């Protein structure tokens, strides 16, 4: 047996790591069905999602690209922002987000590696703390769960 040739502390560590890996490979939804999703995956709104995210696809902050997490940190800090349009009013002309009065939403650029311009990725924030992410230039949004 392979574990007999490995020192006991190392074999215990290997067993623990294997168990952690297997536990992270699958999860269950609220009905107890295996989903195969991890905490960073996109999923539909669940009971833990805020009311403003009801019916939307969601993504946990940890599941966002690193550039989006950096943009969120800049938003939380109040800037400075790398793009002149960061923090400007988002008009929601596509009507993908809940309807609100003009000035309710603001947009921020999420840097896209390899792009020379602003790219298609954005974070849009709402006045009441809502955070949305799009990676297809406003064609679709996911509510960001923080």
Q: Would you mind describing this structure in some detail?
A:
With 146 residues, the protein is an alpha+beta fold. The protein is built from two helices and seven strands. Strand 5 and strand 6 form a beta hairpin. About 22% of the residues have low confidence.
Topology:
Layout: H1 8-25, E1 43-44, E2 57-60, H2 66-77, E3 88-89, E4 105-109, E5 122-126, E6 131-134, E7 142-145
Parallel strand pairs: 2-7
Antiparallel strand pairs: 1-2, 3-4, 4-5, 5-6, 6-7
Q: What fraction of residues sit in β-strands?
A: 15-25%
Mean pLDDT, nearest integer?
A: 79
Report the principal-axis shape.
globular
Number of helices: 2
Radius of gyration: 20 Å
Helix content: 10-25%
Number of strands: 7
Distance, first to last CA: 46 Å
Q: Give the low-confidence spans.
A: 16-47
Largest sheet: 7 strands, mixed
| Helix-strand makeup class | alpha+beta
The H-and-E topology, N to C, reads as HEEHEEEEE
- Spatial order of the strands in the main sheet? 1-2-7-6-5-4-3
Biased composition (Low complexity): 34-50
InterPro entries: N1-like (IPR000026), Ribonuclease/ribotoxin (IPR016191)
Signal peptide: 1-31
Keywords: Hydrolase, Nuclease, Signal
